[in-house]
Each structure stands twice: as C-alpha cells, then as structure tokens.
Amino acid sequence: MPTEVQEETFTLEDLLVGLKELHRLILWNDDFNTFDHVIFCMMKYLDYTENQAEKIAWKVHNGGKCAILEGSFTEVEVYRKILQQEGLTVSVE
Q1: What is the pTM of this model?
Q2: Alpha helices in the chain (DSSP H)
Q3: Which of 9, 19, 49, 68 has the greatest CB tally within 10 Å of its CB?
Q4: 4 belongs to a structural domain
C-alpha cells in the first residue's frame, strides 16, 4: 500500500511570522560542569553579571534547567553551538 504524502505550502507572510517567533535557549543541569564554569560561560558569552550568572547556576542546579536567552531561532542557535562547544548542556525550545 503506497504511503500518502501531504504537501504543505507556505506564504511569504507565514515564513516571516515564523521568523518573528521567539525561541528560548535552555541550560540543563548535568553531572560534570562546575558552578564556576557555568558562571564563567554566562558572563563571557551572554554578558550576564557575576550575580546574575550565579543565580542562573543555582536555578539550574535546583530546578534542573533554566531559560538563559530568548530571541529568534538563528540568534539562540548561535549561542547554543557556542555553549555546547564549552561543554554545557543546552537546547532550543
């Protein structure tokens, strides 16, 4: 029995609305990154103050995850790649 494939079409307006959607970069707790490393990365790459970065580290430690950046998919994807190269566990939602 052949599989039916439904083709989807999008207008330029649909695509532009999709580009405007906000995505979130999520930092996840793991068993190998230290508080100091997380704080360093938040300050170096995302321009958080030391106090803000410490709060993020504690939130991730206690809650398992924390949204650390919100923006277009392209923007958060760039930071996801950078932070992954630093060994942090991050994802885009």
Answers
A1: 0.78
A2: 12-20, 35-46, 50-63, 73-85
A3: 68
A4: no
